[in-house]
Amino acid sequence: MSFKQFNLHPQIEAGIQALGYSTPTPIQFQSIPAILQGRDVMGLAQTGTGKTAAFALPILHRLMNGQRRRARALIVAPTRELAEQIHESIDELGCKTKLKSVAIYGGVNKNPQIQKLRGGAEIIVACPGRLLDLADQGAADLSNIEILVLDEADRMFDMGFLPDIRRITKRLPEKRQTLLFSATMPADIRNLAKDILHDQLTLRVDDGLPVSTVSHALYPVEQHLKTALLMKLLQETSTESVLVFARTKHRTTRVAMQMKTAGFPVTSLQGDLSQSKRQAALSGFRDGKYRILIATDIAARGIDVTCISHVINYDMPDTVEAYTHRIGRTGRAAKEGDAFSFVTPQERDLVGNIEYVLGERIERRTLEDFDYTLPAPVGSTGSTSRAGRSLKPERREFPARFLSSTPAKKGPSYHMSPRASSRRKG
Ligand code: AMP
């Protein structure tokens, strides 16, 4: 099976080759012919399945014919990072087509975006708020849009964007092709789909299931020992890039500081950072300057760094869906990845749900030479729970069933030693 079967324009084939894609992923195989035929598509696809190219390739193909220098395709995404990434993928896939794409999102100066719109970008990749802003002031003309893509629709719903999405669709021509991608299908998204899609083809690519190339392990640990365990684990495990999720902005910054002080090549990403700092953190992580990125869930979607070998849940997420999205950052495009989760006694309820969805019990591991009995520092409150209550880790114990463990596999080498950063390419 190859991309040739889709009979895409030769200039688009050239882009596919430049990216080194040889075989379509299942979602590409299923959706590209339908999109090329002009059908509406609802794709239930998890992250990391290749869904960006699944919609970008047929869009580029369609835009090769017809008028240039006006906005004809609109892709709406929930976060700036995702918008930027889709825009970059389109630029890469369409590098030989002379079609132009522009990324539109808030938190940065509007003027360069307005200029690119005026310059005649054919493809707009946008977050809802800034797009409406520019449409209201007449800078974004949506009257010629032929294809609308709503990417990560469930995430847009979580972020409260549904009213904005409806405002955007009202501004678009009625006669258009609409594609909606979502990892999960809550009722509100189903209703939205009913309203805006017509005679759609529904495609499912293992929706709701984490990618099968990821293996999972739990590390039961008390709250106050998490940072020490993280450092030990990274020292003893052979890794490429590692994405670590913490629950709050404050914890993200604090853990990153502690790791940095200990000499680990680390950076952090959370919502309070300016756009330029976010971009610096992401590109530093992407090009290997920082091997470790500590992030809040803002990074759970959209980050596309193919060499993430490990996702570590420093704090467990709130839902199984969030777990799926977080670990979707590793094991991408059929590469293998590991998902490690630190679990305090207070966080273990979710574990059962995750195991139910995965259909298997997740291996419990302990590090042989890590001191799990160290008490919390005097005066420490451990940390705060989701509800903001102080946990008292020293008073809680894991039930034996939960702790039954397998010693951690040690990596073959000592890859993530502190001070390794200076040896990495910058
Ligand atoms: P996505 O799910 O669109 O974020 O894509 C996940 C990753 O898979 C990205 O790094 C893509 O560049 C890569 N990818 C997408 N399609 C293919 C393909 N057919 N062959 C190899 N890699 C791909």
TL;DR of this structure?
By secondary structure, this protein is α/β, with parallel strands linked by helices. Helix content is 35%, strand content 17%. The protein has two domains: 3-205, P-loop containing nucleotide triphosphate hydrolases (Rossmann fold, 3-Layer(aba) Sandwich), CATH 3.40.50.300; 214-407, Rossmann fold.
Number of strands: 15
User: Largest sheet, if any?
Assistant: 8 strands, parallel
CATH superfamily placement of the largest domain:
P-loop containing nucleotide triphosphate hydrolases
State the secondary-structure class: alpha/beta
The helix-strand sequence is HHEHEHEHEHEHHEHEEHEHEHEEHEHEHE
Question: Rounded to an integer, what's the Rg over CA atoms?
Answer: 22 Å
Which strand order do you get reading across the main beta sheet? 10-11-9-12-13-8-14-15
The CATH architecture name of the largest domain reads: 3-Layer(aba) Sandwich
The shape is globular
CATH topology label of the largest domain = Rossmann fold
Helicity range: 25-40%
Number of helices: 15
State the separation between the terminal residues, measured CA to CA.
38 Å
Count of discrete domains: 2
